[in-house]
Fold these 4 entries.
Entry 1:
Amino acid sequence: MSEEVRKWLIDIGEAIENIDVHLGRKRDFSLYQANITIRRAVERELEIIGEATNRVLKVDNTIGITDARRIIDLRNRVIHAYDAVDDVIVWGVILKNLPALKQEIRDLLAVD
């Protein structure tokens, strides 16, 4: 794996960790929805995850990131359709998808 790809994978891992920091390690949808600062911070981290995923796949499409297209699509929605971001969908990503992605990134980085 190239250093460039490794850096982007690290960026994805750090963005996931930052989401935990923004949420205070809590998983309370009502707190998330009530705090625009937290929502915007999480959305920014999702943008980073999506952009880094896109860059990885452009350089090396053999890197297996599950649901990569959906990750990139979410990034595009947050950036380009910011007024149509659904908090429920973002919350579902936080709960269901990020833990698996976090482990997948760790595994990819451990292989190299």
Entry 2:
Amino acid sequence: MRKGISFGLKAKFMLVSTFLVALTSITWGGWFWLNESEHLMERLEANGRLLLDSIQPPIIDAILYERLGVVEENAGLLDNFIEQIVENRELQVVYAFITDTNGKVLAHSDYREFGKTYRDPLTTAALRRHEFYGHTARLPSGEIYDMAMPLQVAGKSWGALRVGVSLAQVEKEKELMAREIIMFSVLFFLIGNVVFYVVGLTMSRPLLKLSQAMSEVNHHSLDAVPLSQHMHRNDEIGKLQQSFSEMLQRLKKAEQERQVALARLMQNEKMATVGKLVAGVAHEINNPLMVMSTSLFHLEKKVQPELVKYISHHKEGVQRIEGIVRQLTDFSRAGSLDLQRVTSDRFFEEAAGFATLAIKKFPVRFQSSNSAGATLLLIDKGKMHQVVLNLLLNAADASPEGGVVQLLAYLEDGNYCLAVHDQGAGVNPGDEEQIFELFYTTKPGGEGSGIGLAISKSIVEMHRGKITCESRPGDTTFLIRIPLQKEPDHG
């Protein structure tokens, strides 16, 4: 324990320090890369804008000369300017062309585009907004920076100049910058970890002294050495020593809880004995009940009609006693299982079939869904059918008219799960555990015996499973979890 505490704290310190160094490296590197990438794009845009500004006046002059007839329209002046733009050494120009005010191409670096009319948003923006405009675009050959410059004189538009510049050189510079940033970040990461490792060693020395003090704990009585016998600290190490003392107190408490659990186990053994006693008592009660039922049957035929209703009340009472005795008998017999291997799909199909027949008398709709497939189960099929049917009947009885009762099956965390869901008023908060106790019921007097759920819980726990309840108004779910059994080794 002493070694584990020291190593765990040291490992946590190194993990946090490594994370902080890595986070700092990544944050700084990312910020620097983004900032420099933005500067590269701004420089590219500035160079492109400078080029377009410098060549804009002669292009406008050439267009005016052609319109005034000073030179012929096909003299090639505009093509010369396009050629100058394409041959620019500072920018990798992919294409360049000039359009008139309607977007018609007057000159293009690709002669096949001559005469074509462009109505794309960039050209339209340059003609309408009368200002430089650019954005990043993607072509089959790669990314470009597409720029448009309006051709204006004294507020009058004569067309637009479009230039596309390749971003390949910018991407190369970004890659080179990224490699340099990564190398520096790795170097910073290694140096930072070395520094933090030295700091961690320095901090671990007082922890070793604390571990020696902890080794003096009396393991028989779990009493710690008083703090006054050792150097008292007001820092985190002092808090650790205090936490160790509190842990010993928790161990004492855990031992007490173990004793309580042992007493509860003994109580369960007593309940098993009670079950056997109940079985004997139930057998003795059945005999006089049979005599009473027979007598009531004959009396009902001979008494006057106005007395028949009283006979009916007696018959209902006898039937209720018979039902309670039958449930008590089931409870006493729940201590043994007849385990057999069955596939989950067959078990679910049979359970759903029984439920469909049993719930017919209730004004509810029944739905079932099996997503567990054909999983092999080792269960007492009859008793598990009893559990499922009991939960479904309770759900149907609690559901409003027209409500939906659902039976769901699925696999989760190595368990075969059965869920029974209804839309009834639900279980009162705090009663989710008590409803599984023997003779505890939330139904009005005379309608429930409080035995069915206790039997169900006993059967599920004998399968090493667990049954739980989650409830709120309009949404109640009983969930059964049965651990899946591994195939035995026949080797």
Entry 3:
Amino acid sequence: MNRDAIQQEIADIIKEMLHMSFVDKDTVLIGTAGVLDSMTLIRLLAELEKRFDFTMDEDDMTLDSISSVRNLTEWVIQSKGENP
């Protein structure tokens, strides 16, 4: 699966979870302008582990790595150990 496909799937997951009509690579996920609360973030991360078949390493996760769809995509790719 290439980077664009992963990014689109992450955006689609967020749209589905939050019943949003539009999510793109620049959508802010956390912080004051973010669309996710802490419980939804946990659900999202669990769903990403399941969909992309990897085990999350919390040591590699930073606030920046989950701050946007673009950054979350890069974190998922790194966590999977792939380079699409």
Entry 4:
Amino acid sequence: MRLFRLLKIQYVAFQFGLDEFVLSHSRLRVLRIVVRTLTFWRKLDKPRGVRLRLALEALGPIFVKFGQMLSTRRDLLPHDIADELAKLQDQVPPFSFELVLSTLEREYGRKINKVFLKFDEIPTASASVAQVHLAVLHDGTEVAVKILRPNLESIITHDIELMDTGAWLAEALWSDGKRLKLQQVVSEFARHLDDELDLMREAANCSQLRRNFLNSSMLLVPEVYWDYCRNSVMVMERVKGIPISHVDELTTQGIDIPQLARVGVEIFFTQVFRDGYFHADMHPGNIFVGQDGRYIAVDFGIMGTLSDQDKNYLAQNFLAFFRRDYGRVAQAHIEAGWAPKETRVDDFEAAIRAVCEPIFDKPLKDISFGRVLFQLFQASRQFNVEIQPQLVLLQKTLLNIEGLGRDLDPNLDLWKTAKPFLEHWMAEQIGLRGLASRIQKEAPNWAIIFPEFPRLIHQAFAENRNHSLEKKLSDLVAEEKRHNRLLMLIAILLAGLLAWQVFHL
């Protein structure tokens, strides 16, 4: 099955002329002429960006998601390709209304008019995994109905199998494969894809994020209507806003664009460090801006989580980077066990400084995180730093944030925006304020345990006494056995001596 899927991928790439991206290198000019001569029958009249988008759509949801991620990196892509890939964010060809009806009636077990007062047959958005229709409940509530694309499981399963095979080969044949933990990365990606195929999980994600930002002046998360949610259907509050990529329209509405960009950075760091729970699919198609200037988030299929240990490690590294304390960055890597214990801190520090020092004191438009991450990867390879799979989603989200920030305000100073937030967060984690916060957090548990202290202490002493008594009894028994053996030996010797005397008489 994997072979057939691989052949299809190669066929689609060839059909849409994607070999052009490989053969465009000057060293392959002769090969390009040969390929064009042998494939004169192909109709490649459409621009390369359009052909790439169509190929990704033909290959399915995983490849569409790859295109979505690429579309946010306009600093790394030619404009014609970035513009076409941006259409993958919410303009994927929809599936038919007949399939929508069959899905809804199967999930609800009744006709659609018994569930919704009104239902718009034309989807308002269509993405790689699902599409969204506007509707009205019988009580007059306006809602958005998200319906899963049919027959996705088999396609995604085959693609994941191919990715897993590729990761296995890379780990077996490439010296850096095991260090990068490629198979673990694929497993992490597959786990989040499984979550996206269950809209009840997405509804739960949405509900959690809404609770984290309830009454927030920065971010609005729609309410979930649980009575209408199923595994293939999610019904939530209809929210109205302007796509964040429509900067001209936002400006016309009087939105302060530079402030909007700064708030976006603050939302990201709030999710990561305050909650350890963040929206991990923040491409422009999933972010809107309301009339009140608040961000509006949609599509909660992929959410990232971080442990307290991960948050503390990241905060220390971010602050150390912002303060240009590269020695602390190197030391934190070693303390976390990500770099070998025998790593020389001064050498690692020098390598990190060479990568990061040139990017400071520059506006966002002059900084490419993609290039910085690549250079850090090169440095980490030299020191055998292990890639942490649980942070892959965070790295992806950080790249999304960069793409959004660059579109909104190219002069945004990411460092100055993030540093005060991180310093405040760290102040709450360490020192007297952090101690007070942890005491307050653990107080309910202490209130339960404290009254039981006398009983627990008595039990511990009793166990200790019992243990001591058992040991004494054991020692006495052992001593008695030794005495018995000694008495037996004496008796045998006496018996032998008596027998010897009788014999000689």
